[in-house]
Automatic annotation (TrEMBL):
Annotated gene: nuoI
EC number: 7.1.1.-
Entry annotated with the keyword Ribosomal protein: no
Binding positions ([4Fe-4S] cluster 1): C64, C67, C70, C119
Protein name in UniProt: NADH-quinone oxidoreductase subunit I
Organism: Georgenia faecalis
Subunit structure and binding partners: NDH-1 is composed of 14 different subunits. Subunits NuoA, H, J, K, L, M, N constitute the membrane sector of the complex.
Membrane topology qualifier: Peripheral membrane protein
Pfam families recorded: Fer4_7
Length: 211
């Protein structure tokens, strides 16, 4: 059966030659929605998938344990992780392992968020930052130092020992509320020039610390 258009009425016949301008004319009286980026930046939605961040625990230790699950989950092969063993004198994260090398290639990343879903420690999350452009290809491969969250108020820079009497489980449960005096003393003895010592705010003890 052949499709036949409905026949036009007399008004339709009159306006037929200019009907295509209908959308144009009706849009002329609506408010403009053009964004003046980059002069005016419009905030993103709170859950917008932007640049990644490697988070820390409240005492400053890193949440990444170098397990590589994020790299395996990535459909674009954009993440490269190499784990390392924590040492008593160089403890970067709770437990045995930490992310020694961590790279995200933003030329490959499609911002799908599968990597952050795969992360078992919530070390990896995504920020709202979307200004990811640069003049070189190498510059768009972000290294660990580019992705690591800055120290929040009162935190102590890693490496330093875990809170005395705690296991990595205590960190995962959220029982660590900040650096303790023991950790501050350790950094003071081993890295007296560490900048984070100036602003560190030690807490009494961790909730789950075993005596
Ligand atoms: S957001 Fe998606 S593409 Fe980007 S690194 Fe994570 S898993 Fe890979
Ligand atoms: S970011 Fe998460 S998933 Fe990726 S290596 Fe670190 S702990 Fe594992």
């Amino acid at each position: 059966m052949r499709f036949e258009r409905d026949p036009k009425g007399p008004l339709g016949e009159i306006f037929a030659p200019v009907a295509g301008f209908g959308v144009t004319f009706s849009s002329m009286f609506r408010p403009m929605v053009t964004e003046q980026y980059p002069f005016e930046k419009v905030p993103t939605q709170p859950r917008y998938h932007g640049r990644h961040q490697l988070n820390r625990y409240p005492d400053g230790l890193e949440k990444c344990i170098g397990c590589e699950l994020c790299a395996w989950a990535c459909p674009a092969d954009a993440i490269f992780v190499q784990g390392g063993d924590n040492q008593p004198e160089e403890q970067y994260s709770p437990g045995e392992r930490y992310g020694r090398v961590y790279q995200i290639n933003y030329l490959r990343c499609i911002f799908c968020g599968l990597c952050i879903e795969a992360c078992p420690t919530r070390a990896l999350t995504m920020t709202n930052e979307y200004e990811l452009a640069g003049p070189t290809r190498e510059g768009l491969i972000y290294e660990k130092q580019d992705l690591l969250a800055p120290l929040a108020d009162g935190m102590l820079a890693a490496p330093h020992p875990m809170v005395a009497g705690t296991e990595d489980d205590d960190y995962y449960r959220g029982d660590i509320t900040g650096p303790t005096q023991d950790q501050v003393e350790w950094v003071r003895a081993n890295r007296p020039d560490d900048a984070s010592l100036a602003a560190v705010r030690p807490v009494a003890a961790a909730k789950g610390a075993r005596q």
